[in-house]
Amino acid sequence: METTKSSGVASPTERIILGIDPGTTVMGFGVVHTDGQRFRLVDAGAIRFPPTDDHTLKLRAIFRHTTEIIARHLPDELAIEAQFFGKNVQSMLKLGRAQGVAIAAALQRELAVTEYAPTRVKQSITGSGNATKEQVAAMLGSILEHAGLPDSTDATDAVAVALCHGLSYGSILRTSGRARGSSDWGSYVRNNPGRIR
Q1: CA 79 to CA 161: how far, in whole Å?
Q2: Domain ranges in the chain?
Q3: Strand, coil or helix: what is 119?
Q4: Is 21 in contact with 158 (CB distance < 8 Å)?
Q5: Is 95 helix (H, G, I), strand (E, B) or coil?
């Protein structure tokens, strides 16, 4: 799903991407800046909701927190992790509602919205769709050259979604001479070993 933002960004390559890992217990968020050549982590965290709260109160909190993050960082786009199909129907419904509320907050601010499956995110960051959350977090530290990533895997998952979107958009791949959307992070690492620490 994708919707177009009516107001333009500063340049074709310089963008701020908000990534969200939705949930009604914990919502991870990550804000990443890209100038077309590299990515920089701006902010990341995990927002926990009281387990005693009614589901509708949690949804309201998700909307408010997402709106506040957007107002604080003024992202150009939202990348959000799509729900996966599980056996627990009630959990899937709650997760879908959480995702929908976060998307609604972004649409209210006229942000472009793109969903990514969890396996797509893992593939783009580590080269493997079966990577663990810990492996994703470890690779993020190398990509972003950032030692201060949050400990929460909900937060690092959100950063990974934002980064996946940036890579899919092709900003960093174009600088390596590859066609837009024709590669993944694994190929970028092989072609640019000097950029990875």
Answers
A1: 6
A2: 2-195
A3: helix
A4: yes
A5: helix
Q: Are 34 and 13 in contact (CB under 8 A)?
A: yes
- On the CB side of 114, CA atoms within 13 Å amount to 21
Could you list the active site residues? 21, 81, 154
User: How is domain 2-195 classified at the CATH fold level?
Assistant: Nucleotidyltransferase; domain 5 (3.30.420)
> Which one-letter amino acid corresponds to residue 45?
G
pLDDT tens per residue, range 59-107: 999 999 999 999 999 999 999 998 776 667 888 888 899 999 999 999 9
Q: Write down the pTM of the prediction.
A: 0.79
User: What is the distance between the alpha carbons of residues 197 and 195, in angstroms, rounded to a whole number?
Assistant: 7
User: Measured between alpha carbons, how far is residue 122 from residues 130, 133, 139 in Å?
Assistant: 7, 8, 10
| Assigned token pair, 46 | 């995990």
| Residue 170, Ramachandran bin (φ over 0: left; ψ between -120 and 50: alpha; else beta) | left
